[in-house]
Design brief:
Radius of gyration: 23 Å
Helix content: 25-40%
CATH architecture of the largest domain: 3-Layer(aba) Sandwich
Structural class: alpha+beta
Strand order of the largest sheet: 4-3-2-1-9-8-7-6-5
Largest sheet: 9 strands, antiparallel
CATH superfamily of the largest domain: Alpha/Beta hydrolase fold, catalytic domain
CATH topology of the largest domain: Rossmann fold
Number of strands: 20
Number of domains: 3
Oligomer: single chain
CATH class of the largest domain: Alpha Beta
Distance between the termini: 43 Å
Protein backbone atom coordinates (compact mmCIF):
# COMPACT_ATOMS: atom_id res chain seq x y z
CA UNK A 1 0.00 0.00 0.00
CA UNK A 2 2.86 2.42 0.68
CA UNK A 3 4.06 1.86 -2.88
CA UNK A 4 0.61 2.66 -4.26
CA UNK A 5 0.39 5.72 -2.04
CA UNK A 6 3.75 6.89 -3.35
CA UNK A 7 2.51 6.55 -6.92
CA UNK A 8 -0.60 8.55 -6.11
CA UNK A 9 1.10 11.32 -4.17
CA UNK A 10 3.66 11.87 -6.92
CA UNK A 11 0.89 12.90 -9.28
CA UNK A 12 -2.21 14.00 -7.32
CA UNK A 13 -4.57 15.44 -9.90
CA UNK A 14 -3.37 13.05 -12.56
CA UNK A 15 -4.52 10.17 -10.38
CA UNK A 16 -6.10 8.71 -13.52
CA UNK A 17 -2.69 7.26 -14.33
CA UNK A 18 -2.96 5.09 -11.24
CA UNK A 19 -6.36 3.45 -11.29
CA UNK A 20 -9.84 3.95 -12.64
CA UNK A 21 -12.93 2.41 -14.11
CA UNK A 22 -13.42 4.21 -17.40
CA UNK A 23 -13.65 4.17 -21.18
CA UNK A 24 -13.93 7.25 -23.36
CA UNK A 25 -17.51 8.25 -24.02
CA UNK A 26 -20.03 10.96 -23.33
CA UNK A 27 -22.39 11.04 -20.40
CA UNK A 28 -25.93 9.85 -20.82
CA UNK A 29 -28.91 9.15 -18.60
CA UNK A 30 -28.31 6.17 -16.39
CA UNK A 31 -30.94 3.47 -16.03
CA UNK A 32 -29.94 0.79 -13.59
CA UNK A 33 -31.81 -2.42 -12.85
CA UNK A 34 -34.07 -1.85 -9.82
CA UNK A 35 -32.01 -4.18 -7.62
CA UNK A 36 -29.00 -1.86 -7.91
CA UNK A 37 -29.67 0.32 -4.89
CA UNK A 38 -27.57 1.57 -2.04
CA UNK A 39 -23.83 0.91 -1.73
CA UNK A 40 -22.16 -2.23 -3.12
CA UNK A 41 -18.73 -3.34 -1.98
CA UNK A 42 -15.98 -5.61 -3.22
CA UNK A 43 -12.21 -6.01 -3.27
CA UNK A 44 -9.65 -6.03 -6.06
CA UNK A 45 -6.07 -7.20 -5.66
CA UNK A 46 -3.48 -5.34 -7.70
CA UNK A 47 0.19 -6.36 -7.52
CA UNK A 48 -0.58 -8.34 -4.38
CA UNK A 49 -2.30 -5.45 -2.59
CA UNK A 50 -6.05 -5.63 -1.85
CA UNK A 51 -8.15 -2.51 -2.27
CA UNK A 52 -11.76 -1.93 -1.21
CA UNK A 53 -14.13 -0.84 -4.01
CA UNK A 54 -17.43 0.91 -3.23
CA UNK A 55 -20.14 1.76 -5.76
CA UNK A 56 -23.08 3.88 -4.60
CA UNK A 57 -26.17 3.52 -6.82
CA UNK A 58 -28.52 5.66 -4.70
CA UNK A 59 -28.43 8.75 -6.92
CA UNK A 60 -29.83 6.73 -9.83
CA UNK A 61 -33.17 6.42 -8.06
CA UNK A 62 -33.44 10.05 -6.94
CA UNK A 63 -34.98 13.01 -8.81
CA UNK A 64 -32.57 14.90 -11.05
CA UNK A 65 -31.04 11.94 -12.93
CA UNK A 66 -28.01 11.72 -10.68
CA UNK A 67 -25.00 9.53 -11.34
CA UNK A 68 -23.64 6.55 -9.48
CA UNK A 69 -20.32 7.15 -7.77
CA UNK A 70 -17.29 4.96 -7.14
CA UNK A 71 -14.72 5.05 -4.34
CA UNK A 72 -11.47 3.20 -3.71
CA UNK A 73 -10.64 4.67 -0.29
CA UNK A 74 -7.19 3.16 0.19
CA UNK A 75 -6.11 4.58 -3.17
CA UNK A 76 -7.47 8.04 -2.49
CA UNK A 77 -10.49 7.97 -4.79
CA UNK A 78 -13.91 9.11 -3.54
CA UNK A 79 -17.09 10.37 -5.20
CA UNK A 80 -15.91 9.63 -8.74
CA UNK A 81 -18.90 9.81 -11.06
CA UNK A 82 -19.95 6.98 -13.37
CA UNK A 83 -20.59 8.79 -16.66
CA UNK A 84 -22.44 5.90 -18.25
CA UNK A 85 -24.15 2.90 -16.74
CA UNK A 86 -25.43 0.56 -19.43
CA UNK A 87 -27.50 -2.59 -18.74
CA UNK A 88 -26.88 -5.28 -21.36
CA UNK A 89 -29.19 -8.24 -20.69
CA UNK A 90 -28.02 -9.74 -17.42
CA UNK A 91 -24.81 -7.71 -17.55
CA UNK A 92 -23.93 -4.11 -16.75
CA UNK A 93 -21.12 -1.80 -17.85
CA UNK A 94 -19.79 1.13 -15.81
CA UNK A 95 -17.98 3.90 -17.68
CA UNK A 96 -16.17 6.97 -16.27
CA UNK A 97 -14.52 9.19 -18.80
CA UNK A 98 -11.92 10.70 -16.48
CA UNK A 99 -10.14 7.54 -15.38
CA UNK A 100 -8.61 4.75 -17.58
CA UNK A 101 -10.31 1.36 -17.36
CA UNK A 102 -13.75 -0.24 -17.22
CA UNK A 103 -15.86 -2.56 -15.12
CA UNK A 104 -18.16 -5.02 -16.85
CA UNK A 105 -20.09 -7.48 -14.73
CA UNK A 106 -22.98 -9.92 -14.76
CA UNK A 107 -25.76 -10.04 -12.20
CA UNK A 108 -25.50 -13.35 -10.42
CA UNK A 109 -28.40 -15.77 -10.38
CA UNK A 110 -29.44 -14.82 -6.87
CA UNK A 111 -29.42 -11.11 -7.90
CA UNK A 112 -27.37 -10.40 -4.80
CA UNK A 113 -24.12 -9.77 -6.55
CA UNK A 114 -22.23 -8.51 -9.59
CA UNK A 115 -19.45 -10.76 -10.85
CA UNK A 116 -17.04 -9.34 -13.38
CA UNK A 117 -13.67 -7.83 -14.12
CA UNK A 118 -12.05 -4.47 -13.60
CA UNK A 119 -9.88 -3.66 -16.61
CA UNK A 120 -7.27 -1.07 -15.68
CA UNK A 121 -3.57 -0.30 -16.13
CA UNK A 122 -3.15 -3.32 -18.37
CA UNK A 123 -4.65 -5.66 -15.79
CA UNK A 124 -7.80 -7.76 -15.74
CA UNK A 125 -8.79 -7.90 -12.10
CA UNK A 126 -11.65 -10.07 -10.82
CA UNK A 127 -14.15 -7.97 -8.88
CA UNK A 128 -17.38 -9.15 -7.28
CA UNK A 129 -19.65 -6.48 -5.82
CA UNK A 130 -22.41 -7.18 -3.29
CA UNK A 131 -24.85 -4.83 -1.54
CA UNK A 132 -23.73 -3.82 1.91
CA UNK A 133 -25.84 -2.48 4.77
CA UNK A 134 -24.80 0.85 6.36
CA UNK A 135 -23.73 -0.85 9.59
CA UNK A 136 -21.51 -3.26 7.70
CA UNK A 137 -20.12 -0.43 5.55
CA UNK A 138 -19.06 1.40 8.69
CA UNK A 139 -17.11 -1.70 9.71
CA UNK A 140 -15.29 -1.84 6.36
CA UNK A 141 -13.89 1.66 6.75
CA UNK A 142 -11.53 2.72 9.52
CA UNK A 143 -13.05 4.83 12.26
CA UNK A 144 -11.60 8.34 12.17
CA UNK A 145 -11.45 9.92 15.62
CA UNK A 146 -11.60 13.47 14.25
CA UNK A 147 -14.77 12.94 12.22
CA UNK A 148 -17.59 15.22 13.51
CA UNK A 149 -20.05 13.58 15.85
CA UNK A 150 -23.74 14.46 15.90
CA UNK A 151 -25.63 16.33 17.18
CA UNK A 152 -23.85 19.37 15.74
CA UNK A 153 -23.98 22.83 17.38
CA UNK A 154 -24.45 24.47 13.96
CA UNK A 155 -26.78 24.13 10.98
CA UNK A 156 -26.06 22.38 7.69
CA UNK A 157 -27.73 23.72 4.55
CA UNK A 158 -27.56 22.28 1.02
CA UNK A 159 -26.46 24.66 -1.71
CA UNK A 160 -26.29 24.50 -5.50
CA UNK A 161 -24.89 27.30 -7.65
CA UNK A 162 -23.66 28.03 -11.16
CA UNK A 163 -20.00 27.15 -11.58
CA UNK A 164 -17.33 28.90 -13.60
CA UNK A 165 -18.48 27.59 -17.00
CA UNK A 166 -21.74 27.11 -18.85
CA UNK A 167 -23.45 23.86 -17.92
CA UNK A 168 -21.55 23.47 -14.65
CA UNK A 169 -23.63 23.40 -11.48
CA UNK A 170 -21.75 22.89 -8.24
CA UNK A 171 -23.35 21.21 -5.25
CA UNK A 172 -22.17 21.67 -1.70
CA UNK A 173 -22.93 22.14 1.96
CA UNK A 174 -23.01 25.32 4.05
CA UNK A 175 -22.28 24.92 7.76
CA UNK A 176 -23.54 27.96 9.64
CA UNK A 177 -24.23 29.17 13.19
CA UNK A 178 -27.87 28.93 14.30
CA UNK A 179 -28.42 32.60 13.47
CA UNK A 180 -27.09 32.07 9.89
CA UNK A 181 -24.81 35.09 10.18
CA UNK A 182 -21.09 35.63 10.64
CA UNK A 183 -17.75 35.68 8.82
CA UNK A 184 -17.41 33.06 6.11
CA UNK A 185 -14.85 30.62 4.71
CA UNK A 186 -14.76 28.87 1.34
CA UNK A 187 -12.63 25.73 1.10
CA UNK A 188 -10.83 24.94 -2.18
CA UNK A 189 -9.63 21.35 -2.45
CA UNK A 190 -6.30 20.22 -3.89
CA UNK A 191 -5.50 18.18 -6.95
CA UNK A 192 -7.34 14.99 -7.69
CA UNK A 193 -11.13 14.59 -7.80
CA UNK A 194 -12.55 15.67 -4.44
CA UNK A 195 -16.03 15.84 -3.05
CA UNK A 196 -17.16 18.49 -0.60
CA UNK A 197 -15.70 16.64 2.38
CA UNK A 198 -12.26 16.53 0.79
CA UNK A 199 -12.28 12.75 1.03
CA UNK A 200 -8.99 11.09 0.26
CA UNK A 201 -7.57 7.81 1.53
CA UNK A 202 -10.58 7.32 3.76
CA UNK A 203 -10.19 10.72 5.45
CA UNK A 204 -12.48 13.75 5.28
CA UNK A 205 -9.70 16.31 5.14
CA UNK A 206 -11.93 19.34 4.52
CA UNK A 207 -14.87 18.34 6.70
CA UNK A 208 -12.68 18.16 9.82
CA UNK A 209 -11.40 21.77 9.66
CA UNK A 210 -14.78 22.99 8.42
CA UNK A 211 -16.39 21.49 11.53
CA UNK A 212 -13.81 23.19 13.75
CA UNK A 213 -14.44 26.58 12.12
CA UNK A 214 -18.23 26.23 12.20
CA UNK A 215 -17.96 25.61 15.94
CA UNK A 216 -16.07 28.92 16.21
CA UNK A 217 -18.92 30.81 14.55
CA UNK A 218 -17.90 30.80 10.89
CA UNK A 219 -20.19 30.16 7.94
CA UNK A 220 -18.32 27.51 5.91
CA UNK A 221 -18.90 26.45 2.31
CA UNK A 222 -17.57 23.15 0.93
CA UNK A 223 -18.50 21.93 -2.55
CA UNK A 224 -18.00 18.94 -4.84
CA UNK A 225 -15.58 19.72 -7.64
CA UNK A 226 -17.10 19.76 -11.12
CA UNK A 227 -17.78 16.22 -12.31
CA UNK A 228 -17.48 14.84 -8.77
CA UNK A 229 -20.19 13.82 -6.31
CA UNK A 230 -23.37 15.76 -7.09
CA UNK A 231 -21.76 18.50 -9.21
CA UNK A 232 -22.19 18.55 -12.97
CA UNK A 233 -19.56 19.18 -15.63
CA UNK A 234 -16.50 17.13 -16.54
CA UNK A 235 -13.61 16.85 -14.16
CA UNK A 236 -11.17 15.26 -16.61
CA UNK A 237 -11.15 18.14 -19.09
CA UNK A 238 -10.87 20.96 -16.53
CA UNK A 239 -7.65 22.73 -15.63
CA UNK A 240 -6.41 25.04 -12.91
CA UNK A 241 -8.03 28.12 -14.44
CA UNK A 242 -11.37 26.31 -14.68
CA UNK A 243 -11.27 25.24 -11.04
CA UNK A 244 -10.28 28.79 -10.02
CA UNK A 245 -13.37 30.13 -11.80
CA UNK A 246 -15.44 27.57 -9.90
CA UNK A 247 -13.90 28.77 -6.63
CA UNK A 248 -14.72 32.40 -7.49
CA UNK A 249 -18.27 31.29 -8.22
CA UNK A 250 -18.42 29.67 -4.78
CA UNK A 251 -17.42 32.96 -3.15
CA UNK A 252 -20.14 34.79 -5.07
CA UNK A 253 -22.73 32.16 -4.16
CA UNK A 254 -21.93 32.46 -0.48
CA UNK A 255 -22.12 36.26 -0.53
CA UNK A 256 -25.44 36.32 -2.39
CA UNK A 257 -27.23 33.45 -0.61
CA UNK A 258 -30.45 35.08 0.69
CA UNK A 259 -30.57 32.68 3.63
CA UNK A 260 -27.33 34.02 5.06
CA UNK A 261 -25.93 37.26 6.42
CA UNK A 262 -22.28 36.96 5.46
CA UNK A 263 -19.60 39.24 6.87
CA UNK A 264 -15.92 39.00 6.00
CA UNK A 265 -15.07 36.24 3.53
CA UNK A 266 -11.89 34.13 3.54
CA UNK A 267 -10.69 31.42 1.17
CA UNK A 268 -8.67 28.38 2.24
CA UNK A 269 -6.87 26.45 -0.52
CA UNK A 270 -4.79 23.30 -0.31
CA UNK A 271 -1.94 22.49 -2.73
CA UNK A 272 -3.31 23.11 -6.21
CA UNK A 273 -6.27 24.65 -4.44
CA UNK A 274 -3.78 27.20 -3.08
CA UNK A 275 -2.91 28.10 -6.68
CA UNK A 276 -6.61 28.58 -7.35
CA UNK A 277 -7.04 30.60 -4.13
CA UNK A 278 -4.27 32.97 -5.26
CA UNK A 279 -6.01 33.49 -8.61
CA UNK A 280 -9.30 34.24 -6.86
CA UNK A 281 -7.66 36.63 -4.40
CA UNK A 282 -5.75 38.48 -7.12
CA UNK A 283 -9.06 39.27 -8.82
CA UNK A 284 -11.07 39.96 -5.66
CA UNK A 285 -9.35 42.46 -3.35
CA UNK A 286 -12.45 42.51 -1.13
CA UNK A 287 -11.54 39.13 0.35
CA UNK A 288 -10.68 39.52 4.01
CA UNK A 289 -7.88 36.95 3.95
CA UNK A 290 -6.38 33.88 2.32
CA UNK A 291 -5.02 30.67 3.82
CA UNK A 292 -2.55 28.62 1.76
CA UNK A 293 -2.12 25.04 3.01
CA UNK A 294 0.85 23.44 1.26
CA UNK A 295 1.05 26.62 -0.79
CA UNK A 296 3.19 27.20 -3.86
CA UNK A 297 5.36 30.26 -4.46
CA UNK A 298 7.29 29.27 -7.59
CA UNK A 299 6.51 28.21 -11.15
CA UNK A 300 5.51 24.55 -11.06
CA UNK A 301 8.03 23.55 -13.72
CA UNK A 302 10.87 24.45 -11.36
CA UNK A 303 9.37 22.36 -8.57
CA UNK A 304 9.08 19.36 -10.88
CA UNK A 305 12.65 19.80 -12.07
CA UNK A 306 13.94 19.94 -8.51
CA UNK A 307 11.96 16.81 -7.61
CA UNK A 308 13.22 15.01 -10.68
CA UNK A 309 16.83 15.90 -9.93
CA UNK A 310 16.42 14.73 -6.34
CA UNK A 311 15.13 11.39 -7.65
CA UNK A 312 18.27 11.03 -9.76
CA UNK A 313 20.66 11.76 -6.89
CA UNK A 314 20.88 8.15 -5.79
CA UNK A 315 21.73 6.97 -9.30
CA UNK A 316 24.32 9.71 -9.69
CA UNK A 317 25.94 8.84 -6.37
CA UNK A 318 26.11 5.14 -7.26
CA UNK A 319 27.30 5.66 -10.84
CA UNK A 320 30.88 4.88 -11.79
CA UNK A 321 32.95 7.60 -13.49
CA UNK A 322 32.24 5.90 -16.81
CA UNK A 323 28.48 5.71 -16.22
CA UNK A 324 27.98 9.14 -14.69
CA UNK A 325 27.76 11.04 -18.02
CA UNK A 326 24.94 8.71 -19.08
CA UNK A 327 22.94 9.46 -15.95
CA UNK A 328 23.58 13.19 -16.28
CA UNK A 329 22.30 13.00 -19.86
CA UNK A 330 18.90 11.88 -18.62
CA UNK A 331 18.79 14.63 -16.00
CA UNK A 332 19.39 17.15 -18.79
CA UNK A 333 16.82 15.42 -20.99
CA UNK A 334 14.06 15.51 -18.40
CA UNK A 335 14.87 19.10 -17.45
CA UNK A 336 14.41 20.12 -21.06
CA UNK A 337 11.22 18.09 -21.54
CA UNK A 338 9.69 19.74 -18.49
CA UNK A 339 10.67 23.19 -19.76
CA UNK A 340 9.13 22.54 -23.17
CA UNK A 341 5.92 21.19 -21.64
CA UNK A 342 5.68 24.24 -19.39
CA UNK A 343 6.33 26.68 -22.23
CA UNK A 344 4.09 25.21 -24.96
CA UNK A 345 0.49 24.64 -23.80
CA UNK A 346 -0.46 22.87 -27.03
CA UNK A 347 0.50 19.21 -26.54
CA UNK A 348 1.07 18.53 -30.25
CA UNK A 349 3.40 21.50 -30.55
CA UNK A 350 5.22 20.50 -27.36
CA UNK A 351 5.71 16.93 -28.59
CA UNK A 352 7.00 18.15 -31.96
CA UNK A 353 9.53 20.40 -30.20
CA UNK A 354 10.67 17.53 -27.96
CA UNK A 355 11.16 15.25 -30.94
CA UNK A 356 13.04 17.95 -32.82
CA UNK A 357 15.48 18.51 -29.95
CA UNK A 358 15.92 14.81 -29.15
CA UNK A 359 19.15 14.26 -31.16
CA UNK A 360 20.84 17.22 -29.48
CA UNK A 361 19.84 15.74 -26.13
CA UNK A 362 21.42 12.41 -27.01
CA UNK A 363 18.27 10.31 -27.53
CA UNK A 364 16.12 9.26 -30.44
CA UNK A 365 12.82 10.91 -31.24
CA UNK A 366 11.09 7.66 -30.27
CA UNK A 367 12.74 7.65 -26.84
CA UNK A 368 11.91 11.31 -26.27
CA UNK A 369 8.29 10.54 -27.16
CA UNK A 370 8.19 7.77 -24.57
CA UNK A 371 9.39 10.08 -21.79
CA UNK A 372 7.24 12.95 -23.03
CA UNK A 373 4.00 11.08 -22.40
CA UNK A 374 4.22 11.58 -18.64
CA UNK A 375 4.60 15.35 -19.03
CA UNK A 376 1.98 15.79 -21.74
CA UNK A 377 -0.86 13.97 -19.99
CA UNK A 378 -3.49 16.74 -19.96
CA UNK A 379 -3.63 17.44 -16.25
CA UNK A 380 0.13 17.19 -15.75
CA UNK A 381 0.65 19.45 -18.74
CA UNK A 382 -1.71 22.00 -17.21
CA UNK A 383 0.07 21.85 -13.85
CA UNK A 384 3.52 22.34 -15.40
CA UNK A 385 2.35 25.55 -17.07
CA UNK A 386 1.21 27.12 -13.79
CA UNK A 387 3.06 30.11 -12.36
CA UNK A 388 1.47 31.60 -9.22
CA UNK A 389 3.84 34.57 -8.94
CA UNK A 390 1.76 37.12 -10.94
CA UNK A 391 -1.23 36.41 -8.70
CA UNK A 392 0.69 36.45 -5.43
CA UNK A 393 2.10 39.88 -6.32
CA UNK A 394 -1.45 41.28 -6.40
CA UNK A 395 -2.50 39.95 -2.98
CA UNK A 396 -2.54 42.63 -0.29
CA UNK A 397 -5.02 41.07 2.11
CA UNK A 398 -3.79 39.09 5.18
CA UNK A 399 -2.27 35.73 4.24
CA UNK A 400 -1.53 32.65 6.34
CA UNK A 401 0.72 29.95 4.81
CA UNK A 402 1.05 26.60 6.61
CA UNK A 403 3.28 23.77 5.35
CA UNK A 404 4.40 20.58 7.06
CA UNK A 405 8.08 19.83 7.48
CA UNK A 406 7.47 16.40 5.89
CA UNK A 407 5.68 17.86 2.86
CA UNK A 408 7.45 16.35 -0.16
CA UNK A 409 5.06 17.86 -2.71
CA UNK A 410 5.41 21.54 -1.79
CA UNK A 411 8.51 21.58 0.46
CA UNK A 412 8.41 24.15 3.22
CA UNK A 413 12.13 24.90 2.82
CA UNK A 414 11.60 26.28 -0.68
CA UNK A 415 7.93 27.27 -0.92
CA UNK A 416 7.47 29.29 2.26
CA UNK A 417 10.44 31.59 1.47
CA UNK A 418 9.18 31.88 -2.11
CA UNK A 419 5.71 32.83 -0.89
CA UNK A 420 7.15 35.43 1.48
CA UNK A 421 9.27 36.90 -1.32
CA UNK A 422 6.38 37.20 -3.77
CA UNK A 423 4.01 38.68 -1.19
CA UNK A 424 6.71 41.15 -0.18
CA UNK A 425 6.84 42.28 -3.81
CA UNK A 426 3.09 42.87 -3.49
CA UNK A 427 3.81 45.25 -0.62
CA UNK A 428 1.86 42.95 1.71
CA UNK A 429 2.90 43.35 5.38
CA UNK A 430 0.20 40.99 6.67
CA UNK A 431 1.85 37.62 5.99
CA UNK A 432 2.18 34.81 8.50
CA UNK A 433 4.04 31.61 7.67
CA UNK A 434 4.57 28.48 9.73
CA UNK A 435 6.24 25.11 9.31
CA UNK A 436 4.30 22.38 11.10
CA UNK A 437 6.63 19.79 12.63
CA UNK A 438 6.33 16.19 11.37
CA UNK A 439 3.29 16.92 9.17
CA UNK A 440 3.03 15.72 5.56
CA UNK A 441 1.31 17.22 2.51
CA UNK A 442 -2.00 15.62 3.50
CA UNK A 443 -2.13 17.25 6.96
CA UNK A 444 -1.12 14.08 8.83
CA UNK A 445 1.52 13.76 11.53
CA UNK A 446 4.15 11.07 10.85
CA UNK A 447 6.75 10.73 13.58
CA UNK A 448 10.11 9.19 12.56
CA UNK A 449 9.96 5.42 12.93
CA UNK A 450 6.16 5.49 13.05
CA UNK A 451 5.45 6.30 9.40
CA UNK A 452 2.07 5.07 8.18
CA UNK A 453 0.42 5.07 4.80
CA UNK A 454 -2.10 7.82 4.18
CA UNK A 455 -4.95 5.35 4.52
CA UNK A 456 -3.57 3.59 7.62
CA UNK A 457 -2.71 6.80 9.49
CA UNK A 458 -5.60 7.39 11.94
CA UNK A 459 -5.04 11.15 11.93
CA UNK A 460 -7.01 13.23 9.43
CA UNK A 461 -5.77 16.73 10.25
CA UNK A 462 -2.80 17.44 12.51
CA UNK A 463 -4.04 19.17 15.69
CA UNK A 464 -1.14 21.65 15.62
CA UNK A 465 -2.05 22.78 12.10
CA UNK A 466 -5.76 22.87 12.90
CA UNK A 467 -5.11 25.09 15.93
CA UNK A 468 -3.08 27.57 13.89
CA UNK A 469 -5.67 27.66 11.11
CA UNK A 470 -8.56 28.19 13.51
CA UNK A 471 -6.81 30.73 15.76
CA UNK A 472 -5.57 32.84 12.82
CA UNK A 473 -8.99 33.00 11.16
CA UNK A 474 -10.74 33.65 14.47
CA UNK A 475 -8.36 36.50 15.25
CA UNK A 476 -8.66 37.98 11.76
CA UNK A 477 -12.46 37.82 11.88
CA UNK A 478 -12.64 39.37 15.34
CA UNK A 479 -14.46 36.41 16.86
CA UNK A 480 -14.14 35.47 20.50
CA UNK A 481 -12.28 32.13 20.59
CA UNK A 482 -14.37 29.30 21.93
CA UNK A 483 -13.11 26.36 23.91
CA UNK A 484 -10.88 24.13 21.81
CA UNK A 485 -7.73 21.99 21.90
CA UNK A 486 -4.97 23.24 24.18
CA UNK A 487 -2.13 25.07 22.43
CA UNK A 488 1.38 23.65 22.29
CA UNK A 489 4.37 25.64 23.45
CA UNK A 490 6.51 24.69 20.45
CA UNK A 491 4.31 26.45 17.88
CA UNK A 492 6.24 29.47 16.64
CA UNK A 493 4.88 31.85 14.04
CA UNK A 494 7.28 33.56 11.66
CA UNK A 495 6.08 36.94 10.47
CA UNK A 496 7.24 38.10 7.04
CA UNK A 497 7.78 41.84 7.21
Amino acid sequence: MKQLNAIYTSGRRWVGTLLGLALAGGAQAQQAPPQLRGTWAGTVTSYGTPALVLVNFDALHQPGAGKATVALPSLGLHGVQVDRLTPEGDSINLVMSGLPGSYRARLTADTLGLAGYLLTAGQRLPLRLSPVAPARLAQLLPARAQAPRRPLPYRELPIAFAGGAAGVTLAGTVSAPPGLRGPAVVFISGSGPHNRDGEEFGHQSLLVPADALARQGFIVLRYDERGVGASTGRYATAGTADFARDAAAAVRALRTDPRLRVGKVYVVGHSQGALEAARVAAQDPTLAGVVLLGGIGQPLAGIYQARMQANFQGRLAAASPADRPGVEKYVTLHNRLITIAATLPDSAAALAQMQQEAPALGVSAEEATMYASSYLEPTTHDILAQDPTPYLRKMRMPVLALTGTLDAETPAATQLPALRAQLKLAGNPHVTTQEIPLVNHFFQTNAPGQEKSLFENPETFAPAELRLLSSWLTQQAGLVPRRGPRKTSRSRVAQAR
